[in-house]
Every structure is written in C-alpha cells, then in structure tokens.
Amino acid sequence: MVDMWEVLEPAVARVWPKVPDSLSEAERERLEAEVLVALRALESARGGAPSAGTEGAEGTEGAEGTEGAEGAEGTEGADAADPVEEAAQAVAAAFEAYPPLGDLLVAAFDALVDGQERFGPDAPPPSWGTALRSLLVPVLYATDRAPAGGSGTSAAYGGDRGQLSYGEALVNVPDDHRIGAVEKPRWWRLRFRTNPARDTQLGDITPLTAAGFAERAHGHHLPGDGETPRSALVFVHGYNVSFADAAVRAAQIAYDLNFTGLPMLYSWPSKASVTDYAADGNAARRAVPYFQEFLRHVLTDTGVDELHVVAHSMGNRVVVDALADLDTTALPEGAGRLGQVVFTAPDVDAEVFRQLVPRIVRQARGCTLYVSANDRALAASRLLAEHPRAGQAGPGVVVAPGLDTVDVSELDTGLTGHSYPGDHRSVLSDLYGLLRHGHRPSQRYGLARVPHPDGAYWAFQP
C-alpha cells in the first residue's frame, strides 16, 4: 500500500526555495515555525511516538520538556482523529494561508504521488524527492585563534595563536522529530537538503567587529517580556578540538537542549592533535584574559540578561581561571549576570578547583560539576599531572558549598568516558532540566543524593 504522506515533505522541499520571494520576513518566520512543528508531528505520527527511555521522553525530560510521548496519549479513544492526517492537514493549512504557495504545494505533492504510484512496491529513485529537513543555527563566536588564511569554512581558523576576534558561524543541524513538536527560535532557518549524509556541518563563517557582534546579538534576541530573561549559552571546548568541531558542538548542544536563547562559542587555539596536550594546556592558560574580555563584552554590550556557561575538559581551565579573577557582579549597572555555570569533565587540578570555585559560585545563579570514575582521558591526565582532576569521581570527588556535583559513573559513557556532556541522552536530559528550567538536582530525573563528609553530591542511578 502506498503511503502518500511519505512524499509530503519532499513536496515542501520543492516549494521551499520560492518562499523567500513570496513572503515578507515576518511571514516567512511564521510559516517556518508552523511548518516545522507540523512536519515533526507528521514524522512522529508516521513512525510512532518515541517510547519511554528514548530521546523523546528521557532525552528532554519527556512531557515537561518537549512532550515527545504526549502525542500518542492525546489520541486515545475510538473517535480520536488520525494524527497523521491531522499533521498533514496542518502542513497544508500553513501553506494555504499564502495562496500562491498553497497551489504550488498541491501541484508538487500531486506530481510526487503520481511518480510514487508508478513505481509500485519498488522504491523510487532519489531524484523523486529525497529531502532531509535541517535547521541552520547561527552561533556567535569569539576566538583568540589566528585566521588560517586557507579556503573553505574548515580552514577559517587553525591552531595558531591570535588576538581576540568575533564572528558568526552558521551550522546546519539535521532536524529530528524526537526533539518534539516545539517551535524553534525565530532566527533559526528551516532548510531542506538532498544530500543523504546526516552529519551536522559547519556552513558560512562571517567575521565581525566587536560592535558588529553586539549588534548581531541584539538582532537575534526575542523581544523581552519583562519576566523572561534574554539568555545566551556559551560553550567552551576542550583539548584536541578544531574550530569547526567546536562550532558544530556548540550548535548541536543548543539544538539538543532546545535552547531558545542565543548559542555562543568561545574557541581558544587548540592544536586539534592528540600529541599536542602540553601546547593546548599553554594555549588555554593564555586564553584567560581574552575570555574575560569576551565575558565583559557579552554581559555589558549585547543586551543579554543572563549568560549560561558550559565548559568541557581543558576548556574548564579557561573558565575557572577567568571567573576566579573576574567579579561579574561588579560590572556596570544594567549589565547581564551569570546564570548556570556548568563544569563538565574538567581537566583541572582538583585541589586548585576547590580553592577557586568559591569565587565563582557567589556570582552565578548556580554551579554544577559533572564527574565520572570511568573517564579514561582524565585518568591519563592525572598520570601526567601526578594529581587528581576535578572531573574524576571516587573517594576524592570534589564537593563544595554552592556547587552541585553530579556523578555519571553508572552511565555507559563510551570508550573514553569523556564526551558524555554532548553525547549521552541522560546527561543532556539533566542539562535540559538545569538550563531550561533551573531545576535543582532533587527536581531532576534519575539522580539520588549521596552523603559526603563535605556535604552531599548527586549520582545517576544504574
């Protein structure tokens, strides 16, 4: 039996290039929001709502986060409408609100259905409308890498040291219905690709002045309602990471968390080589004053009310040293403030971290430390440094007043056990509850309180 709705999204993809010429900017934003939600609902209905324990429920805190499994419950009963039909009609209705586009969608859909029926049980060739839905996510960045001077986006910045510079990177993130039928931030662009590769990819990079960076940030902000703070999330990468990989990770984290604020990246000049651990450590130390200047600029000049910081691995050295020596509460009146500061798998001397973290917790809305006893990368770092790392769990786990320590040791965190902040759905779910809702560990799923001589920490249960 032919599933005619299979070709609805390819039909949308055929019409999509005509949208910018047919609508105003405000109309296009409204159409993108409606179409994206409807297509996600259609994909979920055709494939079945995610079951408990998948990203649709656990990955973003289920009913509270993205209501990924709620759609199935909402269709109970014999008289319930067909969710596939409802979603398809929602797609059509969005286009019909703009008559030329509605007619074009009907024509494209009919042509694809005719072609699909002509192939019968065999799969039609890719030319009949393979299309992948994706979102173009803008990431505002600052870096003290030197421009590489090469061609192509991946060669924009290398591992050499430079001065502080700003810009915007566009990252193409494949859209997944498991993120839930939720609206995207209005400045994310909806796109369709015929390339079957589903990898997240770095697109155009636009260098900006400091003033241009602030202006771009102002332009991306949703209008404030006086109650919801205008927020940004800056990601600081770790050792052995290229600029391109860092930008992709920043966009992917914002997408996975359905972060409705402004994604940002601070990229220090990692050599992006396993053999350059010492060089990366020196580069991270050198980046501290540049990162401080970046923080001052974001908090005072961009209109951001609240800035969340997520650091990974060696990137925590940049964040810890910078915030320990910068009092963001002393910035001029009207400046933004630190929201959640998240230290994930920090490759920082544990004793140094204990000494410096009190200076940080007093200026942030909350501070969270993620640790693991199975982090092989930090185990190797400990051998080199001859001292425990702050991201290691076990008898010497860091517990401090004002700091929520979360032990992920019971989770399957992969071969190295080091990349869990962006790869493990339970950790992403926990970050979702923290960054989207400001939930304390006692309010987040799957965590149990563990007594400790210095107070208590939290641990994921097996």
Account of the 3D structure:
With 462 residues, the chain is α/β, with parallel strands linked by helices. It has 2 domains: 4-127, no CATH class; 135-460, Rossmann fold (3-Layer(aba) Sandwich). It is built from 17 helices and 12 strands. The chain has helices at residues 8-15, 19-22, 25-47, 55-59, 62-65, 70-73, 83-96, 99-119, 210-220, 243-256, 277-286, 288-301, 315-324, 350-361, 376-385, 420-423, 425-437; strands spanning 132-147, 157-174, 189-193, 201-208, 231-236, 262-267, 306-312, 337-344, 364-371, 403-407, 447-452, 455-460. Strands 1, 2, 3, 4, 5, 6, 7, 8, 9, 10, 11 and 12 form a 12-stranded mixed β-sheet that branches. Helix 15 links the parallel strand 9 and strand 10. The longest helix has 23 residues, at 25-47.
Features:
alpha/beta; Alpha/beta hydrolase; DUF900_hydrolase; globular; hydrolase; 2 domains; 462 residues; Rossmann fold; 39% helix; 17 helices; 12-stranded mixed sheet; AB_hydrolase_fold
